[in-house]
Amino acid sequence: MKRIFRYLTPFLGGFFMALALLFLQAMADLNLPNYMSKIVNVGIQQSGVEHAAPDALSAEGMKLMKTFMSDSERALTDAGYALTSASALGENGKSYRELYANAQEELYIRLGTDAPALDSAFENATWTLVTFMRQANAQQGQAAAEGAQTETSLGGVDITRLYAMQARLDMIPRESILTAHEEAVQGDSSLKTQSGIMLAKLLYEELGADVSAMQTRYILNVGLMMLGIALLSGVATVLVSLISSRIAAGVARNIRKDVFARVESFSNAEFDKFSTASLITRCTNDVTQIQMLLTMGIRLVCYAPIMAIGGVIMAVEKSASMSWIIAAAVVVLIGVVMVVTSVVLPRFKAIQKLVDRLNLVARENLSGLMVIRAFGTQKHETERFEAANADLTDINLFVTRVMVYMMPAMNVIMNGVVLLIVWIGAHRIADSAMQIGDMMAFMQYAMQVIMSFLMISMMFIFVPRALVSVGRIAEVLNSEPSIVDPENALPFDKAKAGLVEFKNVNFRYDNAEDNTLSDITFTARPGETTAIIGSTGSGKSTIASLLLRFYDVTSGQILVGGRDVREVNQKELRGKIGYVPQKGVLLSGTVASNVSYGRKEAAEEEIVSAARVAQAEEFIRELPGGFSYEIAQGGTNVSGGQKQRLSIARALAKNPEVFVFDDSFSALDFKTDVALRKALKEHTGESTVIIVAQRVSTIMHAEQILVLDMGRIVGRGTHSELLKTCPEYYEIASSQLSQEELA
């Protein structure tokens, strides 16, 4: 797992940048409901009047408000306001007379210092006034209903009537007013704020201020602020998506590169462990799963917790008493997700194996299409594919159906939360304990919190599927090749260039009970041809694989150029060998690129010469474009014999010290075989030639022929010698040659 996470290291800069942008986006998204609340509470309900302490008030208004303030609040007010001429210029360049049409010669202008404290002072003074009026009305025996109306609303009060009371208020003992003030301070803060705003509005109207314009201006300013925040959030979202996509794509690219490099370093033993279809799936589908997880995860895993924590804090600030609604919704949500996760998680683990199975069946059908058609088994293969496809489809449909039920469940939870908030919030608004905008903001914060927990929960569903892919990729990356280069590779002995020696070689495949090869000892010398023949399964091709170090011997030694193949660098070893496998393998590209594949720097004359020796020049010249003819994937647009000749030309163009032909002439006709062997003898010169063959005619002129049977050398010598001394060779030869040729 750690090996996978280290792929994020080169992208830590981008990751932290995305994290900062996500934090910025979360802060922006968390503030939008707050601004919406201000538009409703201040812009609509309070007519744009934001502060209980007005920006300006008349001398009468100041005297009235200070009447109901404590000594400390009076001192604060004196420091916060300045007596100014109505003809003086304000900060906006207009005179106060233009701003306040009814202003007298002098008015008090707020200096803007310590605004929250001033607001609190005016709110306390306003509620003291309301309390005092309520007490006075009670003493005069007025109806309680009228007192209640005065208590909760100053909307119908005439400010001039309050000023007319000033003379009587001045005669009231200061202690009585302070007693009422102490009671007012203990009152509900929401009621005090609303009453303070109402009185501030009356004071503005008294001065002739355009309250309607104030309201419009406030709503526009807050609205523009919301648009700016929304734009900032949108830009952050786009940038995060871009960064996360680049990080995910970069990580996926590096993983694919390393998986491919590791697969290239595998020996045949590792390929026996991993099927080709599985390796393809791991390099494509599994890497895509990790890429999708990173693309979503960088955003959701970081963004959702910030939104969840921030949403809870903001919601509690709006109404702590209603926060239990969010807690209950989150508990229900987590319960639903846990149930869904427990159901689908085992299926996620099976999906990737089923994808492997489907790829295997599809690959077998595509590569073996001609055989399938030849034997008329299309229906059987279709049924095999449909069975694998149906298994994968069924499990995907099951997972999809379970996931589909989540959205209705989420809608029920979210709509239930909305109804509960509206129900409880409406009662709190009716009791003047909450404002409409605060209830709307609380509702949005609740949705943000629920959606954040939903995103986090969804990650717990997607993460297990990606973790399965991570494990499968890690399995490949952690599979150390059984064949590795030595730490201190030895150089080849130039004096023994091309010399191949097998010394008491024994070999057994993994998990096999018996040896495939036993006590194999021979020497193949430069300038000579060593042929290996034997029945099917006798171990001929295994000798070629051991020479190229596709496998390591179980015991014994294989020496090339005087060095044990385990003591030299694999690339240098294989650079000295020109290998032609049993099955001719061509790669996508031109004829020329395939012939020069083992030696990119080969000149055009060398490519043509190799093709001529391999008896391929004639048919190449007949192809459209000649050596520029495009070879299809797998060489499907050339015949088997042509493919073998191009494979031989590829080995010849490499001009190696050792040639290994692993039954490479089987698809050639006898005429071409004879011509090819004759040309090879002239071309290979002092190179060592090892031919693994089934045809006696192909190897009968070799200087040394080894006869294998059941993994052992049962005959060694020339063609004529073996006919006399080796019954196994005679049996093979008699099945292929005429009596005259055997004589």
Give me a quick take on this structure:
The protein has 743 residues and is α/β, with parallel strands linked by helices. The protein contains 30 helices and 15 strands.
Describe this structure in words.
- The structure is a single chain.
- By secondary structure, the chain is of the alpha/beta class.
- It folds into four domains: 164 residues, no CATH class; 220 residues, ABC transporter transmembrane region fold, CATH 1.20.1560.10; 171 residues, Rossmann fold (3-Layer(aba) Sandwich), CATH 3.40.50; 73 residues, P-loop containing nucleotide triphosphate hydrolases (Rossmann fold).
- The protein contains 30 helices and 15 strands.
- Strands 9-12-13-6-14-15 form a six-stranded mixed β-sheet, with helices on both faces.
- α2 packs antiparallel against α12.
- The longest helix is centred in the N-terminal third of the chain and has 55 residues.
- About 1% of the residues have low confidence.
Tell me the strand order in the biggest sheet.
Answer: 9-12-13-6-14-15
Proportion in β-strands: 5-15%
CATH topology title of the largest domain: ABC transporter transmembrane region fold
Name the overall outline.
rod-shaped
Notable traits:
4 domains; ABC transporter transmembrane region fold; 30 helices; Rossmann fold; alpha/beta; about 750 residues; about 65% helix
List the helices and strands and how they pair.
Layout: H1 2-5, H2 12-45, E1 56-58, H3 59-67, H4 71-80, E2 81-85, H5 96-99, E3 106-110, H6 115-139, H7 144-152, H8 159-164, H9 166-171, H10 174-185, H11 189-207, H12 211-265, H13 268-273, H14 276-318, H15 323-367, H16 369-374, H17 378-404, H18 406-430, H19 436-477, E4 500-507, E5 517-524, E6 529-534, H20 540-547, E7 555-560, E8 563-564, H21 570-575, E9 577-580, E10 589-590, H22 591-595, H23 604-613, H24 617-622, E11 630-631, H25 640-654, E12 658-662, H26 670-684, E13 688-693, H27 696-699, E14 704-709, E15 712-717, H28 719-725, H29 727-734, H30 739-742
Parallel strand pairs: 6-13, 6-14, 9-12, 12-13
Antiparallel strand pairs: 1-3, 2-3, 4-5, 4-7, 7-8, 10-11, 14-15
Helix pairs in contact: 2-12, 2-14, 2-19, 4-6, 6-7, 6-10, 6-11, 12-14, 14-15, 14-19, 15-17, 15-18, 15-19, 18-19, 23-25, 28-29
